[in-house]
Design brief:
heterodimer, A: 282 residues, MetI-like fold, globular, B: 287 residues, 74% helix
Chain lengths: 282, 287
């Protein structure tokens, strides 16, 4: 790739220089993660000290034990999980037939309806949040899982992404199944969906991560401690404890980022695809 | 009945979008014409009064200025650094996946958790940054506690988070540039810089436009940092537009005024996006 080096020195120096720059940048980018982890492992007397030490002299898990005892962490994790799963399940159930219809079925008004779905992606959340809050409030859904999930039960982006994949599946495959007597419902689930699983997986990861991390909507809907999701719970720890218990706060932050980061490191290629799939290929 | 099947398949999605996206847009505009306290059942139609109040409100202009400042502080830098990183990472071969993951980590982690970590890094006396400054015998900086620095401190976090995200988008764009084009330029005697200037950058322009639009919209919607780290302060120095909308609606329960702010921001973002597309689409080269 680095084809036209001017002599062997350059061919050797270029990758070394590049790695050096990237390595330095990585230190800056990773520093908050390292500092978070190291602080969470330090006893209080090592945190409230005048000199900077990266590594704890006397590493301890006491911050984790304390925060786990003082707050219902499993409940917060479960809330986040339930809400993100509820949203994902509903999105997959609604976008799959819609994407199939937009890609492979013919009906009057198809283009107009597709533009309506696409247009959703252009409308930012802050313009819809007040009316949606009023709706959820009137339905009596404040402080419920339904209220937390309601505005996100389908996804314009998901329909768009999946439709692009369905379009690449040849019609002949569908016709063959039709001749064998399969209805369009069967065709969709047994032919289209299995072929589109990379797109479905990428979308699922994207959606789950978005709603696991969401802070804004839960901030409006959640009223009681027991319904808090992880981001909300972290923000309220910080409110109560800022300035005093940094070790515990960092332990809570580690617990908060671990599920998603582990997931990211396991499926990183799909994760990144899920986020970059936004039609860059034109 | 093949024609009905299509409607049946799209109706759940379309119905939900109408209920939770399109009706709310119109309802927001309607609310912006009312005086309505969330706590009371009664509302009064006041016409354009909320908009008149908005134009006269120093909070609005302050928030607009802060949002524009945050945009200027995050979007150009995170795009340039994102592009530079993408160019560096793109040619690393075997290690490409590794570097990509490392730089993407901030974008993949729960943002509120990392915001709290940054608050700890910014701690006035025992935070990492001020301790570092002290060890260099420099005076500490009141990162979040002084209106001269507070917005800059949020901009640093915004850049930290956005650079990796932009890099990943640029990497996807770089992957779409046919290698033959670069080879052809090289055979014609173009040096590395010339290839970058005349092949890579023009070929990346659709990606660049996309990244510009996405990051502009994201920067104008910044809320989490202002809410969790500074509560808009000190002295309103980090009150950005979405923060003020939230504050008016959910702290002061002034739904009409909050809706007028939301509508103004919506129209501004839409206009801004269209202008960006107009301005740059003439310079965008599609394959």
């Amino acid at each position: 790739m680095i084809a036209i080096g001017r002599g062997p020195t350059r061919r050797l120096l270029e990758p070394v220089g590049r790695s050096l720059v990237l390595g330095l940048g990585a230190v800056v980018v990773l520093m908050p993660f390292i500092w978070m982890l190291m602080t969470s492992l330090k006893p209080p007397q090592e945190i409230f000290t005048a000199d900077v030490r990266l590594f704890p002299a006397d590493p301890t898990l006491q911050n984790y034990v304390r925060i786990w005892q003082r707050a219902p962490i499993p409940r917060y994790l479960a809330n986040s999980f339930v809400v993100a799963s509820l949203i994902l399940a509903s999105q997959l159930a609604t976008i799959t037939p819609a994407a199939y219809a937009f890609a492979k079925l013919k009906f009057a008004g198809r283009t107009i309806c597709f533009y309506l779905v696409l247009g959703m992606m252009m409308i930012p959340a802050h313009i819809t949040m007040i009316p949606n809050f009023v709706t959820v409030h009137r339905l009596g859904w404040l402080d419920t899982y339904w209220g937390l999930a309601a505005p996100f039960l389908t996804s314009g982006f998901g329909v768009f992404l999946l439709r692009q994949f369905f379009l690449t599946i040849p019609d002949s495959l569908i016709d063959a199944a039709r001749i064998d007597g399969a209805g369009s419902w069967r065709v969709m689930w047994s032919i289209m969906v299995p072929l589109a699983w990379p797109a479905l997986l990428a979308f699922a990861i994207f959606s789950f991560a978005t709603h696991w991390n969401d802070y804004f909507w839960p901030l409006l809907v959640v009223r009681t401690k027991t319904m808090q999701t992880i981001p909300l719970a972290l923000a309220s720890f910080q409110n109560q404890e800022a300035g005093t218990l940094w070790g515990e706060l960092m332990a809570a932050a580690v617990i908060g980022v671990t599920p998603l980061l582990t997931f990211f490191l396991v499926v990183q290629r799909r994760f990144i695809e899920g986020i970059t799939f936004t039609g860059l290929k034109g | 009945m093949p024609s009905l099947t299509g409607y049946a398949y799209i109706s759940p999605t379309l119905g939900l979008i109408v209920v939770f996206v399109y009706i709310p847009v119109f309802y927001s505009f309607y609310l912006s014409l009312l005086r309505w306290n969330l706590m009371s059942p009664r509302s009064t139609f006041v016409g354009a009064a909320n908009y008149e109040r908005l134009v006269a409100a120093p909070e609005f202009w302050n928030a607009l200025a802060n949002s524009v400042f945050y945009f200027l502080g995050t979007v150009p830098t995170s795009m340039v650094f994102g592009l530079v990183l993408a160019l560096l990472v793109h040619r690393t071969g075997v290690l490409r996946g590794f570097w990509r993951s490392v730089y993407f980590l901030p974008a993949a982690s729960t943002f509120i958790a990392m915001a709290i970590v940054w608050q700890w890094i910014y701690h006035p006396s025992i935070g990492l940054l001020n301790q570092g400054l002290a060890s260099l015998r420099l005076s500490p900086i009141p990162w979040l506690d002084d209106p001269r620095y507070s917005l800059w401190s949020l901009i640093i976090i915004g850049n930290w988070q956005a650079v990796g995200y932009n890099m990943v988008l640029f990497l996807a764009g770089l992957g779409n540039i046919p290698a033959e084009m670069l080879d052809a330029a090289a055979t014609d005697g173009a040096g590395a810089f010339q290839r970058l200037r005349h092949v890579t950058i023009p070929m990346l322009s659709p990606t660049t436009l996309f990244v510009l639009i996405v990051s502009s919209i994201r920067s104008f919607q910044m809320f989490d940092l202002a809410k969790v780290l500074t509560e808009g302060g000190p002295v309103r120095s980090t009150e950005v537009l979405v923060y003020v909308i939230w504050q008016q609606a959910f702290q002061f329960f002034d739904m009409g005024f909050a809706s007028s702010l939301a509508c103004v921001l919506f129209v501004m973002l839409l206009a801004f996006t269209v202008i960006q597309m107009r301005l740059f689409s003439s310079r965008v080269h599609y394959q």
